[in-house]
Amino acid sequence: MTRRLAAVACVALACGASGGSRTTEVFELETTALAGTPVDVIELDDVVVVLEGQVARIMRGGNVKAIARAPQPWLAGAVIPALDGEGRWLIGLDRGGTLWQIALDGELRSINDQLGLDRSAARSIGAFDRTFAAGFDRGIAASGDLVHMTMFESPVPTALAVARDRIAVLNKEGVELWDLKARTRIRFDVRAAVDVAFLEGKAPRLVVMSADHVFLEKSGGLRKLSGPSHPRSLAVSSQLWVLADDGLYTLEDDDLVHADRARLDPKTSIFRSNTGDVWVAGAGKLRRIGRRPSDALGAWRTDIEPIVKRACVPCHRPGGDADFDLMSFPRWTSHHEEIQRRVIVEHSMPPNGSALSDDDRARIGRWLEVMSVRTQRKPGGSMVHSERSHGRLP
Ligand code: HEC
Question: Could you tell me which CATH number the domain at 9-293+379-392 has?
Fold first, then answer.
């Protein structure tokens, strides 16, 4: 199923604008009308759910398919592997502290008990695959498998981010990086930190936004990225997007470059997209903006997914032999470098005995080429904030 595509257009002056700071081209890939100001946008395959006030609008192909109404305004949403086995669930947290499974027909079902969570006062949630965290007034409930939930004492987190087996916590004491497997916590001293996130990839990298800068984890420290002087918000998946007073920025060669010189509505907000693109909400519109002119998602659905189902999924499904889920588009975007290496360079995947025609391999190769934005890192760069203190998780 394809989503409605707006005519692919260069966003405002990002094309050919002159000026001091570097710019990069970005493209508008999809546009839908928006009623108000969303608090979150979440995606599951070709379904997009916009959380706004008490309403969750469940959209497919740019059309509203169902509406779910929570008893309290929404705070945030996430996607988790289904607690009853098959597939994945869209979930939302409301102000009352209730976590709801949002079914595609608009039905809401509370899942606090199933997750082993206290209903009292969850304030924030984050999830990546089976790693899950919820922030409460008295601490953080975290799980690496969605089955065993542990409550860790911690000051109220003002921001929370989750990657596989890692949790980033921002609280009044600073920024902490928790490793659930190693059971360690590392503290970073960042002045006036306001948000945390993870840049997805083979090794997820911590991103911290302060009132003045954006920092990216590198070699165990946080490196200050050159870029906007007053970042306002972050949207991070396999790509890093920053909204600043003067527009949208994205990561290129470990620097933030201007992606859009157009004046964005002052009420604009941005949200991460599974696809590596960014959702920009403002002026009555929700737009998906990306680095690639062609819609990598659309191409994946038509060209790649059928091959994946045939040639990879038998082993690469959650819980499959390879212990490495490659069923979905987001998994392909965040792991495109490994897939490139194993399938195109080394020809070591799929393993001997499973067939992949030369045509199919070439098709995957072409998609990966379009997919890969420049990921080369410039050598050097100033490392700051290596003030770290180590501790153990209880
Ligand atoms: C017969 C089972 C099987 C099939 C089919 C298969 N794989 Fe794999 N794959 C594995 C196993 C087992 C591993 C882990 C061991 C290894 O790295 O070789 C793996 C590892 C990988 C890795 C490396 C993961 C990492 O941790 O870095 C990539 C990438 C990969 N496969 C891609 C693919 C793609 C793409 C396809 C389909 C075109 C595919 N595989 C088909 C069994 C399979």
Answer: 2.130.10.10
